[in-house]
Amino acid sequence: MPAAHTVTSYDDELRWLARRLSEMGGIGEGMVADAVTALVNADTGLAQRVISEDVLLDTAEREIYEKAVLVIAKRQPMASDLREIIGSIRIASDLERVGDLGKNIAKRVIAVHTMPQPKKLVRGLEHLAELALTQLKEVLDAFATRSPELANSIRERDEEIDAIYTSLFRELLTYMMEDPRNITACTHLLFCAKNIERIGDHATNIAETVYYVATGDQFASERPKDDDTVNVIATVPGV
Amino acid sequence: MMNMMRNEDLPQVQTRSKITAKNVQVFYGTTHAIKDLSIDIPDKNVTAFIGPSGCGKSTFLRCLNRMNDTISSCRVEGQIAIDGEDIYDPRVDPVQLRAKVGMVFQKPNPFPKSIYDNVAYGPKIHGLARNKAEIDAIVEGSLRKAALWNEVKDRLAAAGTGLSGGQQQRLCIARAIATSPEVLLMDEPCSALDPIATAQVEELIDELRSQFSVVIVTHSMQQAARVSQRTAMFHLGVIAEEGPTDKMFTNPDDKRTQDYITGRYG
What we know:
Number of strands of chain B: 10
Number of helices of chain A: 7
Shape of chain A: elongated
Structural class of chain A: mainly alpha
Order of helices and strands of chain B: HEEEHEEHEHHHHEHEHEEHH
Helix content of chain A: over 70%
Strand content of chain A: under 5%
Largest interface: A-B, 19 and 16 residues
Largest sheet of chain A: none
Strand content of chain B: 25-35%
Oligomer: heterodimer
Radius of gyration of chain A: 20 Å
Structural class of chain B: alpha/beta
Distance between the termini of chain B: 34 Å
Helix content of chain B: 25-40%
Number of helices of chain B: 11
C-alpha cells in the first residue's frame, strides 16, 4: 500500500472497501467449496445453506457500489486511488457472480442425485473445483498484496482449468451415449462443470483488474482463453 | 456532461512548440526559485502547471511574459523563446511582448473604468485600431469570445468593477485577448469564482485553445484534468514530470506527482 493520505478518513474508506472485498472473497470461496462437497456427498442440507448464503454476497456487492460512489463524490480520487476504487467495483461484481455460480451448483444437487453417479466423474469435478478455488484464493491474495506478478501467474494458469473442463465435457457426453438414463444427471453435471469453469474465468477477470490497479497498465497480450468444447462432437456408436 | 467529455472527444492536437524554455534559472535575491528548468509548450493546446505552493509554477508562468522584470530582486537566466525568438533579448520591448502574451490573474482586476474602456484600453495604446469603428469591433469581438457580450452589451458604459466576480474575470479575459495575443497565461483564474462562473471560464478556455496556446496554473487537480491536454508537475523549482494530462491523472510515472495528486503530499 502507498503512503497514508493527509486526510486519514480517506484511508479509512479505502481500507473499508478492501476489507469488505476480502470478506466477499471468503464467502464466495466457502460457497463454491460447500456446493461441490454437497454435490459429491448428495448433502441437500449443505446445498440449502449455500443457497441461503448468496444474499450475503448480493448485499456486500451493493454496499461496495454505494461506498465507492460516495468516495468518488467526496474525494474525487486520482491515479492509484481512482484505479483502486474502480477496481473494487469490478472485483465486487466478479465475486457476486462467483456466488451465483456456486448457488447454481447447489441448486442442482437434488436433480443430480436422482441416480447414482460414476465415481470417476465426481472426482473429475472435484479436481476441477480444487483448481478453480485455488485460483480464486490466490487472486484474492494478489489483491490483498497488490501483486502484479501473482496476478499474471494466475491468468496464465486458467488454461489448465479450460483443458480439464474440456475433458470432463467429453466424458459426460460418453456417459450419456452409453445409457440415455444418464442424461438428466449428466446434463446437470455438465452445467456444474461449466459453472466451475466460469468461476475460473472470474478469477482471471479479477487477476486482470488487480494487475491494472497495481500497475496502471492493462495486461499486454490477449488472455489465453479457449473453450475447446465448442468443437466437441458426439459420435453415436453404430450410426 | 458534454463539458466533462471534452478532453477525450478532442484529443491533444499535435502541433509545434509555441514556447521553448531551456535551462531556466530564477533567483529572488539569494533564493533559487527555479532550477535549470526546460520545457516545450505546444501551440493550440492548454498546458496546466500543478504543484504545491512555493514550487515555482507561478514564478515560471510570470517569466513567460517577463512579469518578473518588475521585481528588482528577481534575476532570470537561461533561454525562453516564443516561436523561436528569445523573449529576453535586449531588443525585445516587454510592453509589446505582453500584448502578444496576455495574462489573467487570480483575482479579477478590472481597471476602474467602464466595461468598454477595460477592453478598448489595450488595442488603443498598442495602436491596433485606426478609428472608433475598429475599436468597437474589437471590443464586441473580445467580449463575445469571453462569453460576456450578451450580459453586458446594453451597459458597456457601466463600471467594470460593478460586475459580479465571474463576470469581472471574463472581462479580464476579454481585456487580455483584445490585443490578439498568441499566448494566454492564466494564474489560478478560477480560485475566486463560484462553481458556475468556474464552469463558464473553463468552457471559455476550451474555446480559446483553438486560437491560442493557453498556460494555466491551478491548485485544482480536477480543473487541470478537465481543461488541459498536457500537465507539468512542479516540485521545489523543478518539473518533476510533464506529459499528456490523461496519463498524468490516471497513471503518473513520478512518485511526487502520484503523492501530490492523490493527496499524500507532505
